[in-house]
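User: Second chain of the day. Same drill as before.
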Amino acid sequence: MSQAMTVKIKLKPTNAQTEFIQTSSLAYIKAVNLLVSEMVAAEKVTKKTSKDVDAPLNSAVKNQAIRDAKSVFQKAKKSHFKKIPLLKKSVIIWNNQNFTIGPSGIKMPFVVDGKSKKIEILEDISEYERTLLKKACKIGTLRITRKRAHYVAQIAIELPEKLNTATKIMGVDLGIKIPAVCCTEDNEVKFSGNGRMNKYMRRYHHSRRKELGKAKKINALKKSKDKEQRWMKDQDHKISREIIDFAVNHHIGMIRLEKLANIRKQTRKSRKNNHSLSNWSFYRLASFIEYKANLVGIKVEYVHPAYTSQKCPNCGHRHHAKDRKYDCSDCGYIGHRDIVGAKNIIDEPVLDGKSQVA
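Assistant: Same format as last time:
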């Protein structure tokens, strides 16, 4: 079984190449939207070939536009044509037979003076991304889109499944004050992330947006929100990378996580942690851990989150922790609340993959 993922590469086009990308992207989304409108009017998929698409695009890109239009039409059909999706963002797509990845750039065809011509655009690629491309057992489509001031090449790849013979299990407790605490069967512990810094950054951006809102600076307000989301996503990537590196170094074959579905509804909120709980994405962090674990052959399972931080890992009796300290009055066990949670997650029964309903 292969692992699907997307490699993102920043492009460094010249002014002339930027013009080609902009013109072709606009022509591409215009062609897709026109094809969709024709299918919606006929209420069926129209049989068209690249010869029927009047756009300054080569035949391979026209065929990709037809496939995209069919996919968009099916979404409209499911809603009984109440919602007609339209492409708005600048984008253009090539299949894997129409582009090549070189040591310094990516070659892809554009229509120049009425003829299809391959043009190489320089790339800014990290060693990690290049390694992923070399390991790929299959390379899919190339998608070029604009991310703020840069053009980014998104390449779909499939990596071969990595065999991991390790059998040790590790529990990971996710939270706000400490984003992630790992504990192995051998009681090796890893604290990952800085909850105080996360909270400070969220308070800072929240306060700044209130000021910008009063001043009616809409664009600055949007940029502030985007900046906070990018920062939070980057933290999730770093935390998940630390967790997987720790798991690999300790020969872990299985990671167990809490299934934190509807956590915002289930958790008692206070004025102190209300904003942090509402803005932190536990699902995103868990998904980052899962896909990074799959890349190195580590399996991920989910357990029920109830009482994992209250149950004594030594005797099984339940007690509430005082702040971060857990003290069992039945057997005398003393430990860190989040380590207790991670230990209990190791031994909790595994769910069938379905989210728990509040």
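The longest helix spans residues 218-249.

User: Great, on to the next one.
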